[in-house]
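In response to the reviewer comment on reproducibility (Comment 2.3), we provide here a single inverse folding case reported in full, input and output, so that an independent group could reproduce the run without further information from us. The structure tokens appear first.
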């Protein structure tokens, strides 16, 4: 099995990346988190940790910026009814620390904000992963989780789609010491384009 793929980043989109590995173009499905970490590294050497998912009708290769994201993906896929696409949707809209905090605090509403996740599925994720996710290591991001989370809540209350909000926050110019108001304003600039 492949543990990781390393090579020159040839192409990247918000949902996939192509890495040249010894003349082979390896296409990997990626989350928005991974995309945001590699989007400025075109034609540079990158390493993505991998997970292969075999189905009756397809073989999919998923790439992750770090091993923690891959571990979260594996945990989510162990929940009955959560497939790779839903797991990626969760990882694209929630960073690992937010996911872990939501599960440990049994915050159903945070999980329901992800498209494709209903209340019953959110409860199932919490029940299945509450004991397993405790050991998932989380490195604090530069930005305060609480500020980002509160900014997302404000934008959702204004009627914006959670996926669009996450993309706007990921591409906005936000500094670690920005207030919630400054984060919302930066996201609104991206959302209004």
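Designed residues, in position order:
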């Amino acid at each position: 099995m492949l543990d990781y793929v390393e090579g020159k980043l040839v192409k990247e989109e918000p949902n996939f990346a192509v890495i040249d590995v010894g003349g082979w173009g390896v296409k990997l499905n990626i989350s928005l988190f991974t995309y945001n970490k590699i989007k400025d590294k075109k034609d540079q050497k990158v390493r993505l940790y991998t997970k292969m998912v075999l189905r009756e009708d397809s073989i999919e290769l998923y790439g992750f910026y770090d091993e923690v994201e891959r571990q979260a993906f594996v945990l989510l896929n162990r929940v009955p009814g959560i497939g790779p696409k839903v797991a990626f949707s969760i990882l694209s809209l929630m960073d690992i620390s937010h996911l872990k905090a939501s599960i440990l605090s049994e915050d159903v509403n945070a999980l329901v904000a992800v498209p494709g996740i209903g209340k019953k599925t959110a409860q199932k994720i919490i029940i299945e992963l509450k004991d397993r996710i405790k050991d998932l290591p989380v490195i604090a991001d530069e930005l305060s989780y609480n500020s980002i989370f509160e900014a997302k809540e404000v934008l959702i209350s204004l009627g914006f789609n959670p996926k669009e909000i996450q993309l706007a926050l990921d591409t906005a110019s936000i500094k670690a010491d920005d207030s919630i108001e400054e984060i919302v304003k930066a996201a609104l600039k991206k959302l209004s384009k």
